[in-house]
Request: fold
Amino acid sequence: MQWTNQLAGQLNWSRDISNREEKQRVADQVAGKVKDKDVIGIGSGSTAFLALQAIAERVNEEGLDVKGIPTSKEAEINCAVLGLATTTLIDSRPDWGFDGADEVDGDRRLIKGRGGAMLREKLVMASAEKTYILADKSKMVERLGEKFAVPIEVDARAIHLVETGLGNLSSVKRVEMRMAEKKDGPVITEGGNIILDVTFEDIPADAESTLKAMPGVVETGLFIGYPVEILTV
Ligand code: 5RP
Reply:
C-alpha cells in the first residue's frame, strides 16, 4: 500500500499535462455519460487519464457497477489505482469507449499512437458501438498528417522488408524509427515490436490497407471509418 501514491504519480500523468485545462473540460464531458452496468473501453494518454479519473470518481461516489476494458498496461494500472474494475475483450464487449487522439480531421479521421498503444486501442475501438474521442482544440487539423507522422507498429524481424515496402511508396516522405527517451535504443511496444513514424506527402485514401498488407506491419495509427463521436471544447 505504501507505494500506491508513487505508482499513481509515475503512471497516472500527475506529471505535466499540456493544455491541461482544455483536456480536463473535454474529459469531464465523458464522465457524464456513464451509466450503471456499463462496460467501457478505457483509452490511453493524458486526456484519457483525466477522463478515467473523472469516471472513477463518479463510479465510486455513486456505487455504480461499471467495468473498464483498458487499452494499455498504463490504463490497466490506472484503473487498479483508481479502483475501477476491469474486464477483457475475451470476456466482454465494450458498450462504448473513450480515447484521445493526436490528430482529428473534419471527416472524423484520426491519427493515434503517440503513446504507442494503437494495437489495443484499435481492438477496443473496433469492438465498441461508439467511441468518444476527447480532442482539445490543438488536436483538430484541416489535413490529416499536418502535424504528426503516422506511427506503424512493426515486428523488428521485418524491418528490412518494411523499409523496402515503404521505399516503394511515392507518397512517403520520411520514415523514422521511434527511439526511447534516452536515445539508447528503439521504443519497444507492449507487444514487443518497434514503431516507425511515417511522414506522408499526403496520406493516400488506401494508406491503411497498403501499410497493413506489408508482412510484419502489426498495426497502424490511422483510425479511419470507426464509429466515433468527437468531444471537444
Ligand atoms: C496513445 C494515444 C493517445 O490517445 C494520443 O497520443 C493522445 O494523447 P494525449 O491525450 O496525451 O494528448 O493514441 O497511443
Summary: The longest strand covers residues 194-200.
